[in-house]
Each structure stands twice: as C-alpha cells, then as structure tokens.
Amino acid sequence: MTSPALDVALSYHQAWTGKNFEKAMTYVADDIVCHAPSGRLEGAEAFRGFMGPFTQILTGSSLLAAFGDETTALLMYDTATIPVASAPGAEMLTVREGKIVELRIIFDRTPFDAARAAAAGA
Amino acid sequence: MTSPALDVALSYHQAWTGKNFEKAMTYVADDIVCHAPSGRLEGAEAFRGFMGPFTQILTGSSLLAAFGDETTALLMYDTATIPVASAPGAEMLTVREGKIVELRIIFDRTPFDAARAAAAGA
Known about the structure:
Two copies of one chain form a homodimer.
Chain A: H1 4-17, H2 21-25, E1 28-36, E2 39-42, H3 44-57, E3 58-68, E4 72-81, E5 89-96, E6 99-107, H4 110-121
Parallel strand pairs in A: 1-6
Antiparallel strand pairs in A: 1-2, 3-4, 4-5, 5-6
C-alpha cells in the first residue's frame, strides 16, 4: 500500500532527526496547526520555535513504527537528547498537497521538566 | 489490508475505553512487557496495576488514528479524565497469537503531576 502522507511524514522525520531542520521545514505548510503537550501552535514560525530548539538537543533517534494512508500518517520513535536519555514521541500528521497541515505530537514533558529543575538547582 | 494485530489492539482499546477493563485484560499476555513513561513493567499483574487505575478516572475517549500490520498496531487517541480534561496517548502494540505481548505507551505525565500537586495543596 502506498501512502502519500507517510512518504511526506518520513521525509520530514528523516530530515529533522538527521539534523537538517531547514529541510524538514520544507514539508511544513505555512498554516500548519500543531497540537503539542504545551498547547496549540498555529503557523510555520510558531512550529519552528517549538521543534527547532528540540533538534538542537537531539543526539540520536530510532523510528519504532510508521503507518499511513492517503491523508494521515502515524509515527512512533525514540529519541536521545542531551538532558533526557530516552524521550519517545508519537506523531499523527495530516498531509495535503505534499505538506504537513496538521501535526499532533505526544511526548512526556516530565523528564524534561526534571532536568530543567535539576540544572536550575545545580 | 487486514491486520490481525490491529484487530486485537482495537478490541483491547474498545474494552478499556468502554470501562470493561476485565475484558481488556483478556487480550493481554501473561508475560506482557509494557514500556510506560514511568518505566518498564513486566507481566499482566504489573500491567493491571498501571492501566486499571487509569480506567477508573476515565470519563471519555476518542480514537484519532489506528493502523497495523501482521504483528504491530499503532494507535493514537485522546482521553478525558477526572483530573485532566484532555490527556492524549499513543500506543504501539505487538501481538502474538491473539495476545498483546508488548505495549509501548506514550503520554504526558505533566498535567497529571500538576493535578496531583494541586489536590495535595488544596
């Protein structure tokens, strides 16, 4: 089964996990709506401000599962980051005309909050 | 495309979101390994101790996406709970002989921690 949405989602994923965030942004629609743990983000610049800093602390990643159909892709992956050794995430991506128009991302903020608190207290 | 893993994953999901946790447990292998935000859980009883209490605070749910192949299913859903109005989750389930042998669940613990802290301070 071919999945246009999965093709775009994987291209985006490979770009940002490969530390090529500017290439990743080429798959992001200008009017993207992102549902993140911290809330709703609208537009590519807000999305850049959310995901860009994360790619700066990324040290590794592995894709655990990836599926998709005509319009929707679903990914689960693990990441290694400077503050948190294992930070898995899941994304549901809606793709229209080759661009990601909606992205719902789930991850656990708790270890990031703990690392930030530890750094502040150090 | 038929997916034996997705069939089992959806039966499990419908059971626990339908407040029939004992039926949900019939899809769980005795030797399940669960990767949760709080760490690794081994065995059906440990898994029951993790998911059972969550179903007690569940007030609603909606399945956002579900895909699968022969052995693996991937789900994303939103839940409403007593302490947290919107608590989305994602699960990757590995199925063998009709039972879930491995389940990786991702959700954000932060709002649950905040609700617990607020309740303790009330």
